[in-house]
Design a protein that fits this description.
This protein is mainly beta and 171 residues long. The chain has two helices and ten strands; from the N terminus they run H-E-E-E-E-H-E-E-E-E-E-E. The chain is globular, with a radius of gyration of 18 Å.
Length: 171
């Protein structure tokens, strides 16, 4: 009987974690709470993976979903790796965008890291939501004052949508 109950409980427990299955969630944004707080021309109701809102870049909107925070505010523990996870929707072959990740020294404004993660190779299927994930190694020169910036940058003309964005710290 105990074995039977354990079989029933294990699948339930497996689904109880955060969206970041790879580690501890540090920042999450599904774009639902942004409406009305600020002027965000990239916020759209056209398509959303969850809820009503998603971020969009296209021929007229070059940047979207700008995240900026110091590593010390993001986590009390030192960070050497990050997992970046999001849901991406591409409308056609020219739907091209990258997630740009920067780590800057706030005193000198020097980039300690600048990385573009092209989304088209990770979200190959068109007209459907695709979960993309990228693990990023931070340089050893980062510290709690280092500012982490992540944003969506249009590199094509057709729309690209981003939703359910998460930054997590791998175990």
């Amino acid at each position: 009987m105990k074995g039977f109950l354990l079989l029933l409980v294990i699948p339930f427990l497996a689904g109880c974690g955060s969206a970041g299955e790879s580690g501890r969630a540090l920042a999450v944004n599904n774009f639902e709470g942004m409406d009305g707080w600020t002027s965000v021309d990239y916020l759209t109701k056209e398509r959303a993976h969850s809820g009503q809102f998603a971020a969009r870049v296209d021929g007229s909107i070059e940047y979207a979903a700008n995240y900026s925070n110091s590593l010390g505010r993001l986590s009390a523990e030192p960070i050497s790796k990050l997992d970046i996870t999001a849901w991406v929707y591409r409308t056609d072959r020219t739907s091209m965008a990258s997630l740009i990740v920067e780590a800057k020294d706030p005193a000198t404004q020097q980039n300690l890291l600048y990385k573009g993660i092209e989304l088209a190779p990770l979200a190959k299927n068109l007209n459907e939501w695709t979960r993309v994930q990228h693990r990023l190694e931070l340089p050893p020169t980062v510290n709690p004052a280092t500012v982490l910036k992540i944003y969506l940058w249009r590199t094509g003309q057709a729309p690209v949508y981003l939703d359910d964005f998460e930054i997590s710290q791998p175990h």
